[in-house]
């Protein structure tokens, strides 16, 4: 052991600190993108599950059951192996020969987004069900059109009710991005593995990764809680 | 549809089911015991023990399970004392590392569920029991635990499903559970859609078994609610 341990995770010329922090920010970006994909899918899923058309409700039900019931890693593999094959197939149909593959960032964001969308569907759905139906009727009685009603009455309250659950989902999305290390995206865990391999200090680097995940989770948790406070400022006593 | 291939794949994947179940059940049982211990610490009168319980839960809930698995599988081998100890025959094996990581992880979530379930027991019932002269273990055994069990059961069922899904990560450290076999088959045949779909169906079926077990337990625990 020639270099002291703290130098290895530090920011000096021998340190992996800069790379780890850069990788952590990639983790954060991937988590944010996945969460946004998930919120789109979650909104669509909740709309389907609340729909008056039975087949749409079934599709929504199958979506949430399947993607909350199978391991995340299988979905990531499915997108990783299947995504490139499907894209190549599509490009062949469009008249472009050769092999095409999606960047692992895109694959990962889509896979994690699809998974978190299933959990977000439930969050939005139960939040919507907590709305006071009298308020929607009152809005209609005041002559609000559907978009106005949605924007002024439904969205602000649904978001407020859903936020605690969304905060939990965000935390698990942040942790699930660690799976993307398996498909070769150099996010925090992958970078730690590389560093651990190069220096033969797995305990140090996986420990550092754990600390960085904890810090990211705590920081964003504080953000979510202050946003929660902001949204419920009208209801404070 | 290539039925012979599907049947053959299903047959090979099903061979991983015993390992998946073994991982899940072992981790569930040890996790339950650990979670009970952590919950006891969280309700202890001594602040340092309470802090320890909070730190434990925060640590295991705040970091990805994959990181925990890697720390245990690759990291623990660096500690000389551990390598020399009687624990090494266990910790040197991927199987026991996976069991340890899964148990520790699920115990943190389980402790949170237990804490919530105990907090859900109505305070006036505890007061009533105290007024009748119950205290200590008698109060726990007659009033708190039976009700907390009913409140917490549904949540613990969800945790069991999450644990079942989490066992798939053991495949990353070379274990041949359902996911491990699926990965091997995919890299051999490149027919990812069929193989991964069948693997997913196996996990879904196992999850439904858990749901059914939880329903059965709930029925058993609520004789007075039975119609």
Description:
The complex is a heterodimer of chains A (237) and B (227). With 237 residues, chain A is mostly helical. Chain A has helices spanning 5-8, 17-49, 54-69, 72-93, 104-129, 133-141, 146-176, 188-199, 202-231. Chain A has a single domain, classed as MetI-like (MetI-like fold), CATH 1.10.3720.10. Chain A contains 9 helices and no strands. Chain A starts with a helix and ends in a 6-residue tail after the last helix. The radius of gyration of chain B is 21 Å and the shape is flat. Chain B contains 11 helices and no strands. The N and C termini of chain B lie far apart (47 Å). Chains A and B meet through helix 3, helix 4, helix 7, helix 8 and helix 9 of A and helix 3, helix 4, helix 9, helix 10 and helix 11 of B.
From the structure above, extract its key features.
heterodimer, A: mainly alpha, MetI-like fold, 9 helices, B: 227 residues, mainly alpha, 11 helices
Number of H- or I-type helical stretches of chain A: 9
Q: Terminal Cα separation of chain B, in Å?
A: 47 Å
Number of E strands of chain A: 0
Structural class based on helices, strands and sheet pairing of chain B: mainly alpha
* Overall mean pLDDT of chain B: 92
Q: Which CATH C-level class of chain B is it?
A: Mainly Alpha
Helicity range of chain A:
over 70%
Instruction: Give the overall pLDDT of chain A as a whole number.
Output: 91
């Amino acid at each position: 052991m020639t270099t002291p341990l703290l130098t290895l995770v530090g920011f000096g010329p021998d340190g992996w600190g800069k790379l780890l922090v850069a990788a952590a920010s990639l983790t954060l970006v991937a988590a944010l993108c996945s969460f946004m994909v998930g919120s789109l899918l979650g909104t669509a899923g909740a709309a389907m599950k609340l729909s008056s058309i039975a087949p749409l409700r079934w599709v929504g039900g199958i979506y949430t059951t399947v993607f909350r019931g199978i391991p995340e890693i299988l979905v990531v593999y499915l997108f990783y192996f299947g995504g490139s094959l499907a894209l190549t197939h599509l490009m062949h149909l469009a008249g472009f020969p050769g092999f095409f593959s999606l960047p692992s960032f895109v694959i990962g964001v889509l896979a994690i987004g699809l998974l978190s969308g299933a959990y977000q569907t439930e969050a939005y759905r139960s939040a919507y069900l907590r709305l006071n139906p009298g308020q929607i009727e009152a809005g209609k009685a005041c002559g609000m059109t559907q978009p106005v009603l949605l924007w002024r009455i439904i969205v602000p309250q649904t978001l407020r009710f859903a936020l605690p659950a969304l905060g939990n989902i965000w935390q698990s999305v942040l942790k699930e991005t660690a799976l993307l290390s398996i498909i070769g995206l150099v996010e925090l865990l992958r970078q730690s593995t590389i560093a651990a391999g190069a220096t033969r200090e797995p305990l140090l680097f996986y420990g550092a990764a754990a600390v960085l995940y904890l810090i990211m989770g705590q920081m964003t948790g504080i953000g979510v809680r202050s946003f929660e406070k902001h949204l419920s400022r009208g209801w404070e006593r | 549809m290539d039925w012979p291939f599907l049947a053959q794949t299903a047959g090979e994947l099903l061979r991983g089911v015993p390992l998946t179940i073994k991982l899940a059940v072992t981790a569930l049982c040890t996790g339950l015991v650990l979670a009970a211990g952590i919950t006891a610490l969280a309700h202890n009168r001594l602040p340092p023990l309470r802090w320890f319980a909070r730190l434990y839960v925060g640590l295991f809930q705040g970091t990805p399970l994959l990181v925990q698995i890697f720390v245990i599988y690759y990291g623990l081998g660096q500690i000389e004392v551990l390598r020399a100890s009687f624990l090494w025959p266990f910790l040197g094996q991927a199987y026991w590392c996976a069991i340890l990581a899964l148990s520790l992880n699920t115990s943190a979530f389980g402790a949170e569920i237990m804490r919530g379930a105990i907090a859900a027991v109505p305070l006036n019932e505890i007061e009533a029991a105290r007024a009748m002269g119950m205290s200590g273990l008698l109060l726990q055994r007659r009033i708190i635990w039976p009700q907390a069990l009913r409140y917490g059961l549904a949540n613990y069922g969800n945790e069991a499903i999450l644990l079942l899904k989490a066992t798939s990560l053991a495949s990353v450290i070379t274990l041949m559970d359902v996911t491990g076999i699926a990965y091997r088959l995919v890299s051999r045949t490149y027919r990812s859609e069929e193989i991964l779909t069948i693997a997913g169906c196996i996990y879904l079926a196992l999850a439904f078994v858990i749901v059914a077990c939880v329903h059965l337990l709930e029925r058993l625990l609520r004789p007075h609610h039975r119609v």
